[in-house]
Amino acid sequence: MPLLRITSPHAHGPMSTSRVMQHVLLATVPGIIVLTHFFGFGTLVNILWGGIVALACEALALALRGRPLAFYLKDYSALVTSTLLCIALPPYAPWWLIAIGVASSVLLAKHLYGGLGYNPFNPAMVGYVVLLISFPVQMTAWAPPRGLGEVPGLFEALLACFSPASFDAVTMATPLDVLKQNNSLLLEDLWQENPQFGRWGGIGWEWASLAFLAGGLWLLYQRIFTWHAPVAMLVAITAMAGMFYDNGSSASGGSPLFHLLSGATIFGAFFIVTDPVSSAVSTRGKLIYGAMIGALVYIIRVRGNYPDAVAFAVLIANFTAPFIDYYTQPRTYGHARKGDS
């Protein structure tokens, strides 16, 4: 009597690349809504224009490489890259700045190395660093948040993007930038003289960070990634800030809560550090990788030339990821560790 071939009821196929990318895009929605509320429609316009440029660059690269367009365009990887980059860009950035950044991410950081799965560096962070080094003035032109200035409407956002010469931009230094330039005021006095600091990490920034935290926790619940790298990063930056915090002198680098809720800390921990291609893959490796990024973010913020350092920290850690994986390979089941008797 032949045995029946019955598939186990608990067997499930792996989640596809396109499905993962859709989850990531969906998880960014709460943060985008908060950014739009506090800074206007600039971020949303950035994302829409950046997505168009990303799909065009992706199609061009696939055509030049002789790859099928429909199959690769449907994996949403180009849209994820452009969306993450455009979230990090200042609202009301000119169209050419967005186009250069997205093209650098898709063409240079992704397809130059062979496409999705072969890029050693995070594509969105490559595009961000290219823009930050090449156009520092435009990359620091952040609009004042709601409550400290007039928030432009949709028409003004479109005008700023596609006709920047006709848009009279009003910019304000970010809390990280103000703290970095401070060399005389106690933190308590600095907070009182600069209302953009808000309660914890800057008006708009702190709520956007909490919104990205909610999206990141949802991705963690969906098992898109594991907790190791993001938690290690947040613990490391908290430990560094707590270790060197001196209760608010003029030389202080800021409190742990400030570093967690200001800038791109939470966004980077859950949407950038967790990139499965350019990060470490072993469990211990992810912990080391995330902790390295957290420590580097604090060091560069306090001692470096750039107020927010997530992009630089991630690219440095990307470079070390293969080295970390080599020395943190798990022991093969049934084999003793080297040196064990």
TrEMBL record:
It is found in: Cell inner membrane. It is a multi-pass membrane protein. It holds the Pfam family NQR2_RnfD_RnfE. It comes from the Bacteria. InterPro entries: NqrB/RnfD, RnfD_bac. Its EC number is 7.-.-.-. The modification FMN phosphoryl threonine is found at residue 174. Its cofactor is FMN. GO terms for biological process: electron transport chain; transmembrane transport. It is an enzyme of class 7 (translocase). Keywords: Cell inner membrane, Cell membrane, Electron transport, Flavoprotein, FMN, Membrane, Phosphoprotein, Translocase, Transmembrane, Transmembrane helix, Transport. The chain crosses the membrane at residues 20-41, 47-64, 96-113, 125-143, 200-220, 227-245, 257-274, 286-303, 309-328. One of its GO terms (cellular component) is plasma membrane. The complex is composed of six subunits: RnfA, RnfB, RnfC, RnfD, RnfE and RnfG. Belongs to the NqrB/RnfD family. Part of a membrane-bound complex that couples electron transfer with translocation of ions across the membrane. NCBIfam families: PRK00816.1, rnfD. This is Ion-translocating oxidoreductase complex subunit D. It comes from Parahalioglobus pacificus. The lineage of its organism: Bacteria, Pseudomonadati, Pseudomonadota, Gammaproteobacteria, Cellvibrionales.
